[in-house]
Every structure is written in C-alpha cells, then in structure tokens.
Amino acid sequence: MAELLRIATPDGAASELYLRIPEFAAIPPQCRFGLLPAGQTSLQMLEVERTAQGWKVIGQGINTEYMLHSVLKAGPAQLCIFDSLDNGTFFFKSELQVDRSFYGNAADWLKLFEALPYTKPGRLAVFTHVYNEKAVLEVFLRCYTQLVAAADIYVINHGSDRDQIDHLRNIVHVVDIPRGETDHYNISAFCGHFQRFLLTQYDWVLHVDADELVLHEHGFDALRAALPAQPNPAILRPAHAYELIHDIRSEPAIDLASPVSLQRSLLVASPAFHKPVIASRPTTWTIGFHSCLEPDTVTMEQLWLVHLRDFDFERSVERDRKWSALRRSALDAQHIPRDMTRPNREQWQEILLATLEAGKTVVKHDSGIGNGPMIALPDWMRGAF
Higher model confidence: residue 155 or residue 7? Predict the structure, then answer.
C-alpha cells in the first residue's frame, strides 16, 4: 500500500511531502502520478521526483496542499501510477494510506480546548473584512443589523482610508490591521483565525465579503430560529446563490439612502457562491472563501446568498479599477493571474446588455456575470436590504 507522509528538512525549518511505495525500485522514472478521489473518475495529477527517501511531491506549493486536503477529506483515494509512454496504462494502483505526519503542519492544538465545557455568552456573530468599501458597507449594515445587534457585528479594517471606515467606529466593532500587498491566501488565513476567536464566545459565526448578503426565505427571525436545529458542530451553505444585477436599460443608478432591493429587479444564478458562510466549528477557507477544507458541510434549503458586485454598473467598473491597481504579492500574482478583474468599461457594458437580452449568463471577452439563468427578484426579498 502506498503511503503519504511529511518529513522535516535537515535544518528543521520546513517540511516536504513524500510518497512511499513498496515497489519503489521497480517504478520506471518516466511514470506519471495521479490521485483518484473517492467516487470520481478524473485524476488529480501530482508532480514528483525520485529521491532516496521516496517520491518527493513537488510543484505548486500551497495549491498542492489545498488539493491534497480536498481529495483526502472526500474519502479514501487511490494512488495511480501509469507509464506516460504507454498510452496511460496503469503501472501501479493502490489505496493511499495517509500518515499522521501529513497533518502535522495543519494541527491546531487549541482544538484541545474545544471539548471543555463552557457556556458561550453569544448566539450569533457576523463579521467581514474590508478595504475602502464604504458604499457596500451601508447595505451590509442595513441587512445584518436586522439579524443581530450592532454589538455582534465585527468589521476587519484592512487598511482603509479613514473617511471610508471611521463613521463605523461608534456603531460596530472595527478591528484595524495594517495593509500590505494584496494576498488572498493571507486574507483567508486572518479571517480563519478571527472566526476561531469569535467561536470562543459565540455559538455561531457568519462570515461574508462586505458585498454578500445572506437571507432566509422567511426572514431574519426564521434564520435565527433555524440555527439551533442544525447539526452541531456544522458548517452551513446557502442552497441558492445569485448575482443582483443592474438593468441599465431601465433602472437608474443606485440610491444608497433607500433599500437596494426596491431598486433592482433581476438576479442571475451564480453557483460559485454556494459558500460555507455560517459555522459553529472552525472553518478553513480556501482563497475567495468559496469552499473549505472541512468535510460534510450542510446545505440550508431556505437560505440564499445575494452578491452585490454588479448591483450598480458604474460602481462595479470603479471597483474593478481600484482592485486592479493594488500591489499584489508574488504568490497572489502567480495563482490568481487576473485577480478576478473585468474587461474595460465598454466591453463590460456589452456583456451586461447581452446577459439582460438573453435572460442568462453570456460569456464575452472571457468574462460573464454568474453562471446560469436569470430570475426575477422574489417578492419576499423586496425591502430586506
């Protein structure tokens, strides 16, 4: 049986992943390696090199770690080795045994305290992270102060200009952190740590980007009432995820002094936003918060996520201009080549109009809004934000 393990480097400053295989000596050097996740038919390829300690996993750094954790949490995986010169014929196939050392660098020793009895004083906290997002924060607060008290809302201020954040300091908890280069791995890390901090005092924690609204079909009271009935501990996803879009053919620019949901009428399905947003257990988000490493997330059938990125055409163009101008880390530039930015203003207007006319996502210039059909804003949602 093949084994995956982690071995410290000679200086002890880092560690490396290795595959140990009984037939080590007999495997030809030109073979290719892949993992077959439980219940899947497609391989996740691995880059390896032969060493005295075994086959060392090389290549994509943290992306490889994410991939391995995601594959292994799905169930027993098969290690497949095949001859790249022989049309993919399997040379070796075996269930992959995972040594405890693999999880060594991911061990969270504070989890030892989770089982200790303690009655948490808070039921539900909401938090987000922002950089110069004053406009959407108005909508964010209008929504979430209907779900929890302002004292239970936390905003991680990632280096915003003072005029973008200071007005909130006497309303909600503002947690200031310095701003360095944009790095989505680092953002996932500090939000993961902050969620763990809040979970020491709250039963449940809701985390979203500032332009994401989590709504229950029967209102905010129904969402609060539904949480105690969920499995505990649990990580919850919305069953419905949509982009709120601006019908520039007939709808004016947004007026933030009035509810947004009374000024817009169309949603476009966006499956990528079935995100793990509410949790009663520590959550390890991948970049963008669209998924997590923990298995067995729970889908709430009456829960919706509405994404406001495109709720106003001119604001979305300005947002993309702002983000594309930010200084980024080398890791961020390597793994998120375009930082989710859009084509120019004219091209984006073309994409939006094509989507409105088609009644579903239209991809042009390698971009699109959501990924599915368009629907009318449900009546129960009007006035909610």
Answer: 155
Nearest residue to 47 (alpha-carbon basis) of 38, 34, 36:
34
Burial class (CB in 10 A: 0-12, 13-18, 19+), 302: middle
3-state secondary structure at position 271: helix
Once rounded to an integer, what is the mean pLDDT over residues 11-33? 78
Q: Please write the tens of the pLDDT for every residue from 246-264.
A: 999 999 999 999 999 999 9
How far CA 98 is from CA of 1, 14, 40, 91, in Å, comes to: 10, 19, 19, 21
Token pair in block for residue 120: 């948490």
* Higher local confidence (pLDDT), 196 or 343: 196
Average pLDDT over residues 101-111: 68
Coil/strand/helix, residue 235:
strand
Which of these, 222, 295, 307, 229, lies nearest to 267 by C-alpha position? 307
Q: What is the sign of the dihedral through the CA atoms of 109, 114, 117 and 122?
A: positive
Q: How many angstroms from the chain centroid is the CA of residue 332?
A: 15
As beta bridge partners, residue 29 has none
Contact 374, 355 (CB under 8 A): yes
Q: Cα separation of 36 and 321, whole Å?
A: 41
Full DSSP string of 55-97: EEEESSTHHHHHHHHHHHHTS--EEEEEETTTTT-EEEEEEEE
Segment 163-174 shows an average pLDDT of 97
Q: How far apart (Å, rounded) are the C-alpha atoms in residues 317 and 246?
A: 12
Q: Are strands 298-307 and 173-177 parallel, antiparallel or unpaired?
A: unpaired
